[in-house]
Amino acid sequence: RQRMYTILKRVCLVLCAAFMMSCSVTKTVRSKPQPISEKEVPVKKKAVKIPPVKTVKLTQEQKVKAYLDRFGPIARAEMRQYKIPASITLAQGILESGTGEGTLAKVGNNHFGIKCKGSWTGNVIYADDDAADECFRAYGSVLESYQDHSDFLRKNWRYHPLFLSLIHISE
Question: DSSP characters for 123-157?
Answer without folding.
Answer: -EEEE-SSSTTEEEE--SSHHHHHHHHHHHHHH-G
